[in-house]
Write a structure and sequence with these properties.
By secondary structure, the protein is mainly alpha-helical. The chain has one domain. Helices cover 47% and strands 0% of the residues. The chain has 3 helices and no strands. The longest helix has 12 residues. The protein is elongated and about 55 Å long.
């Protein structure tokens, strides 16, 4: 997945964005719907397996208190 940041303050930017929206493999996501930086880091860590696994809630809290 690739994120592009398009500043829509010029006619050229508006035209390129309009073109991209016509392509079937492009999905335009407004800035309000993008995950914030902390969430993106958490998603990346989870995909890389950098997570703490627990058996249940009590085990989770025990590991938090260590």
């Amino acid at each position: 997945m690739v994120y592009l940041k398009v500043k829509e303050n010029s006619q050229q930017a508006k035209l390129i964005l309009a073109y991209l929206q016509t392509l079937p493999f492009i999905e335009v996501i407004e800035k309000e719907n993008l995950p914030n930086e902390i969430t993106l880091k958490a998603i990346k860590a989870a995909k890389e397996g950098k997570v703490t696994k627990t058996q249940n809630v009590q085990d989770f809290f025990n590991k938090l208190n260590k």
